[in-house]
Amino acid sequence: MVIEHSKLARRIALPMILAGLGLGGTALASPAGERDPARVVGPKECAECHENATAIWRHTHHYSTFREMPRDKKGIEIAHKMGLRRIKEGSLCLDCHFTSKLNEDGEAEPIAGISCESCHGAGKDYLKVHSEFSGKKEEEETDAEEKQRWKKAEEAGMIRPYMMYTWAKNCYSCHVVPEEKLVNVGGHTAGSPFELVAWSQGEIRHNVWYNEGESNPPAKLERRRKMFIVGMAVELETSLRAVGEATQKADYAITMAKRAARARKRFAQATQLVDGVPEMAEITKIAKGAGLKLNNKAELTQAADRIGALTRQMVDKYDGSSMGGIDRALPGKDDWKGQPQR
Asked: What share of the chain is helix, strand, coil (3-state, %, to 5)?
């Protein structure tokens, strides 16, 4: 029996309180390719067409971090411990708490909080491709041309809603901190109590493009089932990688090992509830055999790679209709993180 989601969320949250930073994790070593400042165009470019989604974003914590984060006392303390004069300096904080773009000097400069390209990929190469209807008027574009247009946009780095594994990885790449020193030296929390359904169906929900802005419905039940399972799998994959990256028995390694153990247990429980998805049983088996210990990077990375491949396979293969057994564990509306601005 899967533990009731609200209780489970509290169990995960207790050792990972956000210490006043609001949004948790910070990706460090280098920007994820999807967030490369050299390819970022900025939310103003997206807002020209996506006005309703932009209006919703402006009422989220993702938006307000640009203004509030640099004044956060805990954040300033962490930055100083890491040798930074201010939060908006260098990649330590920029990669996850801001959207950054190269300035005239070729340096990454924050231009917004967490915004469109943080999730959908840096837009420089796909912005025109995805929006210009193959060089025709919208009603003149053929189905074949539209299909090819989307294919080109994806090849140029656009992360579309159906690419659930890819955008979920973007979420967890920040909500599970991949940098040991930031935690052990800076005192940053090792991550936030993030869960894909609860956090995506709340204040950041923006299902308005195909609804002409008249409504912003939550994801359909079948999609929420799939998101819940995919989110658990991505958290498991990400936390296993984090344990593999740890080099010393300190806060980071200990917290990540605990998170991986919880993620492994949760996924095993979910597997017992869902029939007809053999990939879940295989993920459970792989995770069970992975040793959560220091100096085990090769084994943990291999396990994470296999889990990632199986998760991608689930995304491509299932629509959620066969995953009804998970319904009893799904986060309900009371668990969703806020409400989107109407």
From this structure: 60, 5, 40
Comparing CA positions, the residue from 74, 79, 118, 75 lying closest to residue 95 is: 118
Contact 47, 110 (CB under 8 A): no
Question: 6 vs 188, which has greater pLDDT?
Answer: 188
What is the value of pTM for the model shown? 0.89
CB neighbour burial string for 194-232, b if at least 16 within 10 angstroms, e if fewer: bbbbbbbbbbbbbbbeeeeeeebebbeeebbbbbbbbbb
d(CA 119, CA 133): 23
Cβ(52)–Cβ(213) below 8 Å: yes
Sequence ranges of the domains in the chain: 1-18+192-334
Residue 338 has phi, psi (to 5 degrees) of 80, 180
- Under 8 Å between Cβ of 216 and 310: no
What DSSP state is assigned to residue 139?
Answer: G
Q: Which residues contact 141 (CB under 8 A, 6 or more apart)?
A: 133, 134, 149
Angle at 12 between CA 7 and CA 15, to 5 degrees: 130
DSSP conformation class of 104? T
Mean pLDDT value of segment 150-173 = 97
Angle, helix 297-317 to helix 278-288, in steps of 10 degrees: 170
pLDDT tens string 177-200: 989 999 999 999 999 999 999 999
Q: Which tokens go with 70?
A: 């640099």
Rounded to whole angstroms, how far apart are CA atoms 119 and 97?
A: 12
Neighbours of 113 (CB within 10 A): 23
Concatenate the DSSP letters of all residues of 227-275 into one string: HHHHHHHHHHHHHHHHHHH--STTHHHHHHHHHHHHHHHHHHHHHHH--
| Average pLDDT estimate for 283-299 | 98
